[in-house]
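[job 4471] stage=fold_predict status=RUNNING
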Amino acid sequence: MEMGEEYFMKMALREAEKAFEEGEVPVGAVVVINNRIVSRGYNMVEKLNDPTAHAEIIALTSAFNALGSKYLPDATLYVTLEPCLMCAGALHWSKIGKIVWGAQDIKNGHQVYTEERNPFHPKTQILTGLLAEEAASLMKAFFKSKRGK
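[job 4471] inference complete, writing structure tokens
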């Protein structure tokens, strides 16, 4: 099976589904180096009673531990939702090589990414909108279930 951008975003969506099943906001992430997933994460804010336990932070911390490094210049993060400002800061400091996200987060996204205004490391490549409909559908289903409709 071809392991391209879409494959890895589907793996991030699987992580988001785990979050959904556990009553967490369904965001998932995977860190990939050389076409190999080195870490995974999904939102665990409720489970850990920690507002910083976002999918990106869980995946980054796991990658740092697995690789024994605080920088990830050769890695790509696939995340189902646009990173928030906190996660954008963590990604900046990780010096990650590439970030790919699915759905935009109008309410809580970092909201500052333009070519001129980039919260990420200057060498980080950005790709947005990959499987955005799938990621957005999962979010909508989650919040609809919380409202009881």
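[job 4471] summary: The chain has a mean pLDDT of 91.
[job 4471] exit 0
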